[in-house]
Amino acid sequence: MIEGLEFIVSAFALTWIALAVYVVSLRVRARG
Amino acid sequence: MTTTTFSPIFTVRLRPWLGIASLAAAIVATYMALIWAPPDVTQGDVQRIMYVHVPTAWLAYLAFVVVFLASIGWLWSKKVWFDAVAVASAEIGVLFTGMTLVLGSIWAKPTWGVWWTWEPRLVTTAVMFCMYVGYLLLRSLSSDFERRATRAAVIGVVAVVNVPIVHLSVTWMNSLHQLPTVLRAGGEPTLDGRMLATLLVGVFAFTVIYAYLLAARVEIELDRRRRQEA
Question: What is the pLDDT of residues B38-80, one digit of tens each?
Fold first, then answer.
């Protein structure tokens, strides 16, 4: 069992989800 | 009189390639951070959060330095492209600063035992975040393009002072936050070779992602300006 796994997974998941959401928001805004 | 002339090479032709490079760099950086890099002797595996926390912090610095340079460019030349770069970089910088605060909080809980503490690095980073949110809000106060861009540029020039304050706050004051391990005065990085390589690949990946986001956001801003002029 990796100690602090929930913190590691949360950090990496939040990072890529935040960036993905921002990319989607840019695409939506680009369509006007 | 403002002008919307700009070079489309960065914003249009390079963007698809930047998107592909961003995705590839993100996959490699994540693999290295989660699997290839060794666990830390003291903190164990939870130290791997550093590989996203530190790059987001560095990219926030870079984004705000770009805001500063583009603001100088606007004040100097009144070219719309500079204002578009400034607002785009400020928005992305706010995103990266917000991520830095959240990731730092997630890292703080297992290592310090708290989600947040009032110590210099955290407080100065939060102040920097609020100042650039203010910069973005200020832009919505005026509908006159030139006045808005000039006001924002002045804030963009002044607010960059946050960057050295945040970075050096850990050396100026007693801090719970660890001291710089890579960008530190008078010495080599204090990281293990594989950890340093993983961190540098992470910084490279986030830099490519930043360039991609900047290109896309600048194009939106210029489109908006073209529609207003039409």
Answer: 999 889 999 999 999 999 999 999 999 999 999 999 999 999 9
Q: pLDDT, tens digit, for every residue of B124-156? A: 999 999 999 999 999 888 888 899 999 999 999
pLDDT, average across residues B110-122? 93
**For residue B137, what are its two tokens?**
């809000």
Cβ <8 Å between B52 and A29: no
- What CATH number belongs to B8-229? 1.20.120
- Say how far apart CA B125 and CA B98 lie, in whole Å: 9
Q: Does A31 touch chain B (CB under 8 A)?
A: no
Indicate the SS3 state at residue B44.
Answer: strand
A7/B49 CB distance under 8 A: yes
Q: Which residues pair with B79 in a beta bridge?
A: B3
Round to whole Å and give the CA distance between A7 and B52.
12
Q: Amino acid letter at B162?
A: N
Residue with tokens 């698809």: B16
Dist. CA B205–CA B136, nearest whole Å: 26
**CA distance readout (Å), B6 to A29, B65, B87, B155:** 20, 21, 16, 23
CB atoms closer than 10 angstroms to residue A4: 21
Which chain B positions have a beta carbon within 8 Å of A15's beta carbon?
Answer: 52, 56, 99, 103
